[in-house]
Amino acid sequence: MAKAEAKAEGGGATSASSGRSAAMRPIGAMWGWLALVVGIAAGASWVPAALKLSARLPAADPGPATSLFNLLVFGPLIAIGVVLGLLSRQPVLRAGARPLLWTLAGLACGAIAILSTTGFAWLSGGLRPALQPAASVPGLIALGVALTLLQSGAEEVLFRGWLQPALTMRIGVPGGVLASAVVFAGFHAISAIPSWISVVNLVLGGLWFGLLALRSGGILAPLAAHFAYNVIEDCGLGLVPNGGPNGNEWVGPLGALHDLDLVGSPLWGGGPEGLNASLGLTAALVAMILPLLAPPVRHPVPVVMRGPLPSHRLI
User: Fold this and answer.
1) How far apart are CA 258 and CA 243, in angstroms?
2) What does pTM read for this prediction?
3) Where are the alpha helices (DSSP H) in the chain?
4) pLDDT tens digits for 56-76?
5) Which of 173, 199, 270, 299 is deepest in the core (most CB within 10 A)?
6) Taking the mean position of all CA atoms in its chain, how far away is CA 19?
């Protein structure tokens, strides 16, 4: 009798505990969504604030001024992503599986994407050497490479390190990858309203980086692809900002190895938005995304038979 009463009491305690856990789930979900909204708002509000602060920086030597600008804008974004990851108990700075292989693959994919996009501009007759080529200073170009790594790393930590996993936990993998790509595009529209092609390409770029993070299990692959694309476009070919048909705009505050200008139709990069508004970039991004949508190849696990082999013939 005593055992039955104790068992009944234990069952009652268990059911009460389960009831409390069930009652706490909506509260936990509400706090999770609130943290997401606050995190996105914190990152989005910092970008225009940093741009206003950077406008007050003394425009002296291009090296220190550009370094301060990038540190001011992108350094806090890394901190925001890491802090949000710690608060949500989510590893943000994760390398993923086979990090060296995925890093090399990301670098190769980023290089192929920018070179093929530039190739489309060349085929359309919209690529030429700058009329007023800028002088190349190796030290400034090296600084530009480091700052490009900072910029790419900050965006990947925030969007693929924290935001995408936080969204996939709540709305599933397809919705999380797509939603983080849309927010990624929205962040790039804060300082200036882009054209519709640029918006499409930004969303596609977010999908590409998001799928790389999903397939590799970390942020090294999307960071490598993001960095390779940007560093070749900026520091290698001098396509940002675009000099245009007059060729009277400097390649950038830190220079580049080659100073090229995009001319001709804006649909192939000849407009003020450069390759961001290029149909060539659209084609390159679609080509990068499609293989990542294929289901991963699963190798069969060999079956190890234990014990004596059967004496009868199977065939």
Assistant:
1) 13
2) 0.83
3) 2-54, 62-87, 99-123, 138-156, 164-171, 173-188, 196-216, 220-231, 279-293
4) 766 666 677 788 888 888 999
5) 270
6) 40
Which candidate, 82, 101, 100, 274, places its Cα nearest to that of 161?
82
Phi-psi region of 278 (alpha: psi -120 to 50; beta: other; left: phi over 0): beta
- Residue 300 is given by DSSP the state P
Whose tokens are 């992108």? That residue is 74
* Domain ranges for the chain: 19-293
Q: What residues contact 128, with CB distance under 8 A and at least 6 apart?
A: 260, 261, 263
Strand partners, 261: 128
- Angle (CA) 87-92-97 rounded to 5° is 145
Tell me the pLDDT tens digit for each residue of 253-295.
Answer: 788 888 888 988 889 988 889 999 999 999 999 999 999 998 8
Contact 2, 132 (CB under 8 A): no
Residue with tokens 């943290």: 35
How far is the C-alpha of 125 from the C-alpha of 7, rounded, in Å? Answer: 83
Token pair listed for 198 = 């640029």
- Kindly state the DSSP code that residue 273 receives in the 8-state scheme: T
Q: Which two tokens stand for residue 173?
A: 């993998």
Distance of alpha carbon 277 from the chain centroid: 18
For the chain, give the longest Cα–Cα distance.
98
Instruction: Supply the DSSP symbol for 310.
Output: P
Q: How deeply is 58 buried, as exposed, middle or buried, from its count of CB atoms within 10 A (0-12, 13-18, 19+)?
A: exposed
Is the sign of the CA dihedral 213, 273, 119, 153 positive or negative?
A: negative
Give the rounded distance of the alpha carbon of 262 from its chain centre.
25
- Reference 65, options 77, 53, 76; nearest CA is 53
Say if residues 70 and 51 touch (Cβ distance below 8 Å).
Answer: no
237: exposed, middle or buried (C-beta count within 10 Å: 0-12, 13-18, 19+)? buried
Q: Using alpha carbons, select from 150, 155, 152, 190 the residue that is nearest to residue 70.
A: 150
